[in-house]
Every structure is written in C-alpha cells, then in structure tokens.
Write a structure and sequence with these properties.
six-stranded mixed beta sheet; about 35% helix; binds magnesium ion; binds adenosine-5'-diphosphate; Rossmann fold
C-alpha cells in the first residue's frame, strides 16, 4: 500500500438485528500502521462492528475494504489470511497447549522459531515451551495479542485487551501497543471500555453511540466533543 493509504475503509456499514440497528451507516477509514480507539457506551455496537469487519457477521449493508480489496462474502479465515485479524473479549486460549504451539495455531502460517521467540519476548510473555495451563489469565491475554502479531497482520482489532489485567499488566500492555505500528507495520483498532488505556495509546478515536458514529478524529478533539461527554455522562 502507498504511504498514508487507508488499510481499512468502512463505508455505510449497517447491521440490523430484527428492528434494532446495531450499526447504522458507519463510515470511516484507518490509515496503515496507525492506532485508532473505538469507544462508546455499553450496547453502542462495538462488538457488532468487530464481528462485521472480521467476517463473523456476514449479513450487513455497506462496504468494507482491506487496502483496496472488497471483503464482501469472505470468511473470517480468508480475511485473516489477507491480513485482518482480531482478538476476542472472552478468554479463548486453550490451556492444554504450550505457548509456542498456541502461537503457531493462531498464526496459521509457517513461522520461524526465532520469530516466535522475538514476539513473545517483546510482549514479556513466558517462553514458547511454557504450558498455557501454568499461565495466569492476564498473561494469557498478552499471549493472545502476541500470537496475532506473530501472524504479521496489516490490521489487528483488539476487543477490550485490558479486560482482566492487573494495573501493572495494563501499563505494560499500553507501552507495547504504542510500539506495534512502527515495529511490526500493523494498524490497530482498539475497542476499550477503559478510557485510561485509550488516552495513553490511541492518537485518534471514533465514538459509537446507538450504532452511529458520534465523533471521529484526533483524541483531544473527540474527548472534548460535547456530544461525547454527554454520552459518557449518561451511562
Ligand atoms: P457493545 O459491544 O458496544 O457493548 P454490541 O455490539 O454488543 O455493543 O451490541 C449492540 C446492540 O446490538 C445492543 O443493543 C445489543 O443488545 C444488540 N445485539 C448484539 N448482538 C445481537 C444479536 N446477535 N442479536 C440481537 N441483538 C444483538
Ligand atoms: Mg462489546
């Protein structure tokens, strides 16, 4: 992709559950190797957005492009192979595997052992031979992020990555996330309830409320937007 060309273009994305529009005409772009926070009150449509973009919710109106590739009709696996990956809000890391086996399982591509070790070390994760059953929940979340980064995606969507982390793990995660675009060439969309993490990591923000984009742009501008303040006060 050209420098500054969007890695993701969302155009008129609309998802309807019966009478409810969980997403209503959502449009924005994400530049390559950038970090955007996607925030909004409970029920705003954040998880629906991730599901629609990553192919878990194929029934929607509007267009989703990865680079200049239209993703219509492509399965989650196909999208992952094209470089669009996501993590899940719930802990889905299988305890029976070693850390290294899990990274290979998630990446679904050939990885050199040295590359796995490098990513695990960068995230401060236990070494590849460790059993996931001996790793605490907070560290498992880091391993999930590390495994997806090891797959070298163009876009990684993180659904509430700080959930279940201690304060120290939270700070460590924030520091690593900030470095990911420059280090691995990946763009991040970070869905987060925790505004502290968003403030410290995301230069740009998009706010959803009742399925609509309430505000989108530079962090300071968005957080000072009266409509955004009102939406958060109303929680
Ligand atoms: P958020 O992640 O921002 O909390 P969600 O995307 O989970 O919000 O939900 C957006 C809205 O869509 C909510 O009103 C929720 O109840 C509704 N919703 C989500 N998934 C479904 C579904 N599978 N069927 C019906 N309604 C749903
Ligand atoms: Mg959610």
């Amino acid at each position: 992709a050209l420098d500054g060309a969007p890695v993701l273009t969302v155009d008129g994305l609309t998802v309807q559950f019966g009478a409810l529009k969980a997403l209503d005409d959502v449009s924005f772009t994400v530049p390559a190797a950038s970090i955007m926070g996607l925030i909004g009150p409970n029920g705003a449509g954040k998880s629906t957005f991730v599901d629609a973009i990553s192919g878990f919710l194929p029934q929607h109106d509007g267009r989703v492009l990865l680079g200049d590739r239209d993703l219509a009709g492509l399965s989650p696996t196909r999208r992952a192979r094209l470089g669009l990956r996501r993590t899940f809000q719930q802990d889905r890391v299988p305890p029976a595997l070693t850390v290294g086996a899990y990274v290979r399982f998630v990446a679904r591509r050939r990885l050199a052992a040295a590359d796995i070790d490098e990513v695990l070390a960068f995230f401060g994760c236990p070494p590849a031979r460790s059993r996931l059953s001996s790793v605490d929940v907070g560290t498992r979340r880091l391993v999930e992020v590390a495994a997806n980064v090891a797959a070298r995606p163009r876009l990684l969507i993180l659904d509430e990555p700080a959930a279940g982390l201690s304060h120290e793990e939270h700070l460590a995660l924030a520091a690593r996330l900030r470095e990911l675009p420059a280090r691995y060439g990946v763009a991040l969309i970070i869905i987060e309830h925790d505004l502290d993490l968003v403030r410290s990591v995301c230069p740009t923000l998009t706010v959803l409320d009742f399925g609509r984009v309430l505000a989108s742009g530079p962090q300071a501008e968005v957080l000072a937007n009266p409509d955004v303040v009102k939406a958060y006060m109303g929680e």
